[in-house]
């Protein structure tokens, strides 16, 4: 078995055997297959794809590069959610305590943001005192006591994926449905959850720009989860426009807390409840999450979850020193608020990072004052930019140049939850 | 300018700009573009190809990574030959002194073998005392005094190509017409020759297995040379069966000396004269090389060329300690002698190397006793294997298992010189 013959087999459109996949990933982790060889193989996979069996084996080999957790000693079913990443996607912050308050346990191992979509850990770290680095014992203890935990993945969680993801990021090989599906599912399966709902985003602010691509990714991941003994389903949801009004770390935490308090933007509430219902269905808990959100039990669980990880739910959140208003140049209906542009603007304000070792600004980001479909007057404030350094506004405003479309009609749009994939 | 956006552009089927090509190769040489990034780009080029302008710029950038030589102070025209590599291809050994003896100067910078085809330097190094490492001054002095020189490329000759070639070898990205053409032509243009004849091999023992692929490579290279001010033409020649009877380093030198002495296999003589005529035509020397071969002037030049580089043309050549005969299993016409199988057998006997730092055996290889088209009886010796260690014969015999086809007819075959490409 050697790396070149495996690369050539895939390059020429062949199907890799189980033994080849096991060997190449194991050798990569042991540094016997070089970075440049894995980069060439990743590009060959972008080119030729992988069939369902290859993807399943690739995923299994990445899980086996570390340890698949067994979450034992729980008196309730486990269920997790994963989003493929969108602009203003603070759903996890509300959904995790909500579903836990409904009677399930939510064991979420999460990541940091890279590029124009934020990372859940970055958002939670804007809460004074909150920390993401739990030991395995701390993670399981919090799952038993609170039922909700969001923490950083440890070095045991699919280490092959961690290395491969960093490599793909610098070699232009991120955009491959088989590699994306294997990356996400290896981590979620290894995490030990019994059930999983995938929020697969579609649109300008999402990784998948078209519905067929998003559907293919969703179907691939649902099959991978199911075949690995994890009850899995997916919702395809609209990411042409940002979710809610806030994009940025502390700004999104504040909006999540509003939703937990019974308010907040209608689209955030709608998607949170749709995903909560899907998660509760998967584990057979006949509870209406709308009641649990309305009566404050979700908020109580949020406070316990934050406190268990050292955070102070009552502390003031960090705010950026500088603000800049973006005004409507004309009157009309806001037919489009482009998610990618808003995400890029928030990133340029300092909410995201260029390199993975960069820090992020807790207070930076974008708050929208108007959502898609609103009627605006010339001079109305459309959005406010937040940054620690006003020098950042130039790039952010450039990103927003085409973000807002003010027209005569109401615009065509997809429903927020477009369709469901799953058994 | 950054590597990821260039990789993504090619991955998505785009055409790279001159600035992108210059930047990525320059940054690669300066180690600011990483090996894994160049590997991904090379695979994307295998996938998407490059157009003529991209290939020309890629070639120019590789030349500019070092220095393009100017061969001055010569009283005769310069012309070189490059073969894309075949089994038993010792043509350079005869052709270089022959064309020099006809009045041209042949400034050949050559390489070593990797895989089943031998390298010209490895062959010449089997001559006791001969050395390939000349300084630029020694190289030019020998070109003036002898008119013929075959030496190793120095570190100034297209260093980007040297690194890229080593990378492609370990990443399954060798098989790309644009990258092959740019690699060959960057070295030949940088070498400083005024004219160039390409021997593009077609068939099982060659890199290009089919005539359309070989034609595409030939046309690409002829255009590259012509556009860079080098008069260039190509012959497409048959490599379904080995050239001559010998495959192996000293074994091929001995056969070349036979041809220089007026004997040797007819196919070696035919191809040598065809390439010599093409070279002499390009530089306008109306000499018949057959006369120069017949009257011993080519042999004289060979002796001076070998001596000028420290070699003893009268010394006995190294011979392998062990021999093994391969017998005909049945009577009939030898309709096929497969070039790839014979090359692989010679390589496994020790004539070639697995890694580029491996030594080669001077005496190892295969000598055929019969060529394609011969009538044989059961038990006739078809070939003799030569190796320093008899343990090598097992693998070599395995390689030869299907090499010889004995049938009833005479077999279909292409002419040795299939067609010419050039202005």
A few lines on this structure:
The first copy, chain A, is built from 16 helices and 13 strands. Chain A is of the alpha/beta class.
Explain what the structure shows.
2 copies of one chain form a homodimer. With about 425 residues, chain A is an alpha/beta fold. Chain A folds into 3 domains: about 45 residues, Up-down Bundle (Transferase, Pyrimidine Nucleoside Phosphorylase, Chain A, domain 3); about 240 residues, 3-Layer(aba) Sandwich (Pyrimidine Nucleoside Phosphorylase, Chain A, domain 2); about 90 residues, Aldehyde Oxidoreductase, domain 3, CATH 3.90.1170.30. Chain A is about 45% helix and about 15% strand. Chain A has 16 helices and 13 strands. The first copy, chain A, has a 4-stranded mixed β-sheet with strand order 1-4-5-13, with helices on both faces. In chain A, strands 6-9-11-7 form a 4-stranded antiparallel β-sheet.
Distinctive features:
globular, four-stranded antiparallel beta sheet, Pyrimidine Nucleoside Phosphorylase, Chain A, domain 2, alpha/beta, Aldehyde Oxidoreductase, domain 3, 13 strands, 3 domains, homodimer, 16% strand, 423 residues, Transferase, Pyrimidine Nucleoside Phosphorylase, Chain A, domain 3
């Amino acid at each position: 078995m050697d790396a070149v013959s495996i690369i050539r087999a895939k390059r020429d459109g062949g199907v890799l055997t189980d033994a080849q996949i096991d060997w190449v990933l194991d050798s990569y982790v042991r540094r016997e297959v070089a970075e440049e060889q894995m980069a060439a193989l990743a590009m060959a996979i972008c080119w030729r794809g992988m069939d369902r069996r290859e993807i399943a084996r690739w995923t299994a080999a990445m899980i086996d590069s570390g340890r698949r957790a067994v979450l034992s000693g729980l008196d309730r079913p486990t269920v997790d959610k994963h989003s493929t990443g969108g602009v203003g996607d603070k759903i996890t912050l509300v959904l995790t305590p909500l579903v836990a308050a409904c009677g399930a346990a939510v064991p979420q191992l999460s990541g940091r943001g890279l590029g124009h979509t934020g990372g859940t850990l970055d958002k939670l770290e804007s809460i004074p005192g909150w920390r993401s680095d739990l030991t395995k014992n701390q993670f399981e203890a919090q799952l038993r006591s609170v039922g909700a935990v969001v923490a950083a993945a440890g070095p045991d969680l699919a280490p092959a994926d961690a290395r491969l993801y960093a490599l793909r990021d610098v070699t232009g090989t991120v955009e491959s449905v088989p590699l994306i599906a294997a990356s996400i599912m290896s981590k979620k399966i290894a995490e030990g959850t019994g059930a999983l709902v995938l929020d697969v985003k579609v649109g300008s602010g999402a990784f998948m720009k078209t519905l067929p691509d998003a559907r293919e990714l969703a179907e691939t991941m649902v099959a991978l989860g199911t075949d690995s003994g994890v009850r899995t389903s997916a919702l395809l949801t609209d990411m042409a426009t940002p979710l809610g009004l806030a994009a940025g770390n502390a700004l999104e935490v504040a909006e999540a807390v509003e939703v937990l308090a019974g308010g907040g933007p209608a689209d955030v509430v709608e998607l949170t409840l749709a995903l909560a219902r899907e998660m509760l269905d998967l584990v057979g808990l006949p509870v209406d999450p709308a009641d649990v959100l309305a009566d404050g039990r979700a908020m109580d669980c949020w406070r316990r979850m934050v406190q268990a990880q050292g955070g102070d739910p009552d502390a003031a959140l960090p705010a950026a020193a500088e603000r800049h208003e973006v005004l409507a140049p004309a009157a009309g209906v806001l037919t489009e608020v482009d998610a990618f542009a808003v995400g890029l603007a928030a990133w340029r304000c300092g909410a995201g990072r260029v390199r993975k070792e960069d820090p992020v600004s807790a207070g930076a980001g974008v708050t929208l004052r108007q959502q898609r479909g609103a009627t605006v007057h010339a001079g109305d404030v459309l959005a406010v930019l937040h940054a620690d350094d006003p020098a950042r506004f130039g790039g952010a405003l450039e990103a927003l140049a085409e973000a807002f479309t003010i027209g005569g009609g109401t615009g065509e749009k997809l429903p927020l939850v477009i369709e469901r994939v799953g058994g």
